Amino acid sequence: MRKRIRIYILLFFTVLSSNLFAQSPTISTIQKAGGGLSIITGCTGQTIRLVGTNYIATGMTITINGGSPISTYTYFGPVNAIELVIPITTPTVGSGIVVTSLSLPSSPFPFTVIPGLNFSQPIISQTLCEGSPLTISVGASNGGTLIYQWQKNSSNIPGATSVNFNLPAVTPGDAGNYTLAINSLTCLSNVTTLGSTVIVDQMPLVSAGPDLSQCYGVPFVISGSATNASSFSWSISGGAAAGSLSSNSIVNPTYTSAGADSLGTMIIETLTASNAGCGNVTDNVVIIINPKPHATIVGGAPINICVGGTANIDINLTGTPPFSGLGLFNGVSNSNLGVIPGLSFNKSVSPVSNTNYTLAPV
């Protein structure tokens, strides 16, 4: 009876040992998880699938060696599985995969690990003036062979296949949302950056209007204009003004002279227009305020003439010639003196009786 028991135990150990050493794990292919494409290079952060035979026990280890530190994954799946899905977590480059089941290591299967794709997001938004250059940059590294495709408003931009996107001079039609699609051929992965919104402002067009020559005491409108402007304002950039504008923030303000303007002055008013991406554009208008004219008859003593004779009345004027709108009134009618070109004027009269003459507007 003892002899039979010993033989049985020996036979059982022999069978177990034979099965143990006969089922060394092997790898036939490595695939991207979820796909049947065989790969020999993987990326950190990627999940891969080992396809082979003799994955016989839970608790086996899969080692990606060659890197530092070595990445090890412990399998806790079903017994006798022939496919294992594992994540690649090693942070450095490694090569070769070894599967160990119990005490039976497999031979290394050729496989290379590279760092996964790393990229930076572009500037979220830019506001540019038309004619300015546009550059959108994305820093991309690792991931093996990379293919780039820039998109505007989700549509591919022909020829825009570099990591950076450049336009030498933007137009309003270039405004939009730009993204970069990055395809890693090595890692078999695709990512798309966040959008970079580009706003293109048009250059302001501004005119302060024609230069003006106005008489003191008469309000007048400055004929300014501005387009493509988000704001505009008037300011004095030369001369001296005692008067004021009706508003500094409308394009057609009214100027009312006052105080020292009555002596005559020159004013330079500047219209400034701005648009966010284009800065400021200015234009000037020169305004001459002329003193209010004044006319006097020279002397005051009576002029004696014979009946049928002629008397000359001398008139002096102050202000800025030429003058108009002045008449010589004889008590009955007002004779228009017409356009007076200078600061002095002589008018001949031939009264038939004693007459008093005065200057009056016509």
Name its key features.
disordered N terminus, single chain, mainly beta, 6-stranded mixed β-sheet, 1 helix, 362 residues
General description of the model:
- This protein is mostly beta strands and 362 residues long.
- Helix content is 6%, strand content 47%.
- It has one helix and 34 strands.
- It has one helix spanning 2-22; strands at residues 26-32, 41-43, 47-55, 61-64, 71-74, 81-87, 94-101, 104-105, 109-114, 118-119, 125-129, 134-136, 140-141, 146-152, 155-156, 165-167, 176-184, 189-192, 196-201, 205-207, 212-215, 220-221, 225-227, 231-239, 244-245, 254-256, 265-275, 279-290, 294-297, 311-318, 326-329, 334-336, 344-349, 358-361.
- The longest helix is centred in the N-terminal third of the chain and has 21 residues, at 2-22.
- It is rod-shaped.
- It starts with a helix and ends with a strand.
- Residues 1-22 have low confidence and may be disordered.
What's the short version?
This protein has 362 residues and is mainly beta. It contains one helix and 34 strands. The protein has one helix spanning 2-22; strands at 26-32, 41-43, 47-55, 61-64, 71-74, 81-87, 94-101, 104-105, 109-114, 118-119, 125-129, 134-136, 140-141, 146-152, 155-156, 165-167, 176-184, 189-192, 196-201, 205-207, 212-215, 220-221, 225-227, 231-239, 244-245, 254-256, 265-275, 279-290, 294-297, 311-318, 326-329, 334-336, 344-349, 358-361.
Helix content: under 10%
Task: Name the shape in a single word.
Answer: rod-shaped
**How many beta-strand elements?**
34
Radius of gyration: 49 Å
How large is the count of helical segments? 1
Structural class: mainly beta
Give the overall pLDDT as a whole number: 82
